[in-house]
Amino acid sequence: MDKKNNLKVYQNEKTVITVNEDWCKSCGICIHFCPKKVLVSNEKGFPEAKNIDDCIHCMLCELRCPDFAINVEKKEKTVEHIVNQKGLED
Ligand code: SF4
Ligand code: SF4
User: Fold this and answer.
1) When you count CB atoms within 10 A of the terminal residue's CB, does the N or C end of the chain come out lower?
2) Which atom of ligand 2 is nearest to the CA of 45?
3) Tell me, what's the pLDDT at 3?
4) Cα–Cα distance, 63 to 20 (Å, whole number)
5) Pairing of strands 47-48, 70-74
6) CB–CB of 11/37 below 8 Å?
7) For 7-14, which contacts have Cβ atoms below 8 Å and span 24 or more sequence positions?
8) pLDDT reading at 79 higher than 90
């Protein structure tokens, strides 16, 4: 039987946080080390990115997870942002 990864994806316009609930052992280390209290424990004990808007992409959760079960990605800036920034720099 094929076993699909049980991935939970949380995202907003700046951030994507993915939790692999097959690998996560609900140890709570990521929740404990997040300096912005982005992560909370859900009813199964898995981390849930309830306050994703507060994420500062410090990557501590990802780095501290002993099971590689949580991943944080900072979304790339849009083309408009890059063009605007260049316009300001010139
Ligand atoms: S990257 Fe940092 S701020 Fe964001 S959820 Fe992980 S520990 Fe918290
Ligand atoms: S540190 Fe890793 S294994 Fe522990 S609760 Fe967080 S995601 Fe799950």
Assistant:
1) N
2) 5
3) 53
4) 15
5) unpaired
6) no
7) 8/46, 8/48, 10/48, 10/49, 10/52, 11/52, 11/75, 12/52, 12/53, 13/75, 14/55, 14/74, 14/75
8) no
Tokens of 80: 């408009």
Q: Out of 3.40.50.1100, 3.30.70.20, 3.40.50.300, 3.30.470.10, which CATH number does the structure's domain 7-89 have?
A: 3.30.70.20
* Pocket residue to mutate for ligand 2, from 20, 23, 24, 32, most atoms within 8 A of Cβ: 24
What's the pTM value of the predicted model, to 2 decimals? 0.84
